[in-house]
Amino acid sequence: MERKGKYSDVDDLFRNRFSGYEPVPGPGLKARLMKKVAVKEFFSFYPARFNVYYLAVAAAVTGAVLLVTLGGGSGKSLPETMKIPGDSVAAIMQPITDTASMTHSPGVAPVTGKTPAFTTGNRPSDSHKESQPVIFSADEVDRKTVKSDAVSVTVDPIREVANPVRGDTTLQKTAVSSFKMSVSSGCAPLVVELTSTSGNAHSLQWSSGDGRHSDGKSLTWVFNQPGSYTVSLKAIGYDGSEDNASAMIVVHPSPVAKFDVSPANREVSDRDIMLFNYSAGFLTAAWDFGDGGKSHLRDPLHSYKASGKFRITLKVSNEYGCFDTLSKVYSTAPGIYRIDFPNAFIPNNNGPTGGYYSLRSDEAAYVFHPEYEGVTDYHLVVYSRTGVMLFESRDLNIGWDGYYKGQLCEPGVYVYRARGRYANGEQYQKSGDVTILRFR
What we know:
Elements: H1 10-18, H2 27-42, H3 52-72, H4 86-93, H5 99-103, E1 111-112, E2 115-120, E3 134-137, E4 144-147, E5 152-155, E6 179-181, E7 185-187, E8 190-196, E9 201-207, E10 213-214, E11 218-223, E12 227-237, E13 242-252, E14 259-262, E15 272-277, E16 284-288, E17 294-295, E18 301-303, E19 309-317, E20 323-331, E21 338-340, E22 344-345, H6 359-364, E23 371-373, E24 375-383, E25 389-393, E26 403-404, E27 407-408, E28 412-422, E29 427-436
Parallel strand pairs: 7-13, 22-29
Antiparallel strand pairs: 1-2, 2-3, 4-5, 6-8, 8-11, 9-10, 9-12, 12-13, 14-15, 15-18, 16-17, 16-19, 19-20, 21-23, 24-25, 24-28, 26-27, 28-29
């Protein structure tokens, strides 16, 4: 039998009996609700409170500082003693692989095995939805940007960078060889001044083209023999590089003036003379007889109008414009016989000349030779202070140039002896000393 009552079910009873009461939650329920609210605020962007976004920024800044401090500042990878093995990384990262932590932590990469990976998560407001994270293997990442709605992180692989060369910037420059010359062609003996204008050169190596070498920045070379010579300069740089420069020097032959007068010196009143040109390598000849008379013949005749002493000069030239001169004093007065020697002279520093003297060499006092009149026979010998014979000549036109076996003798006093015969048959013998001076 169905029992009838005022209320047909429990719901009606609750609404009628307790509708006027206000429900008050218990302490446990309130604590659980506040905890959920705090968690939701931590994972939501709310500028007024500390949340997961502030934590992510702080972690990124801290990681960048550590990377620069430990390895990035010097351009080198971390030392082996400071690297963390893959197993240890996995062990350290294991607590954050919880599903709930990953769901509410955007940008956190789960650790699988020994290789770290980078992943993107969901926004906190979508934490209740199922999502499949996108994973990049660390072995495949060169430079990738891992993005989420909350944060964007750029990953750069660490590379070994060699330190640049420090200090003087010339150590990184290549040598450039160049030089300048005072002349590129001329008559023998040719004096050439060379100066290096090379850049970034640590050392220099010169070559003359005739077997001589030098390492100076500037130098002077004398080319006595005619011909073509290739002068070269090698410049070696601070970085070990090498560069070469070269130039051609052409040395033209010079003629050699030589002549005789017949008769040698007169003892009679006849003033007619004949000149014989024995010069070598010449094209033109110019005579000056010392009394105003001149000639361009090879072997001229000349007649003096008065008695006296006259200087006869011969100048010979070749096709290159090179020339040489020779002078002799001729006397037309009978009965004059003499031979005299100077007591000092200055040798030519440019090399041996063979002893042939001329007006030009006399002006510079380059050759030791006699002044004479009426000499028909002649023999000159020069000795060192120790008795070594340095020079000998039987030709009045050849004197001592101050060299011995191609080497210039030292300044000092030397001894000479001369003997022979005059045109009248009288013999002569002279001896004395001569001093080599050097002012250049």
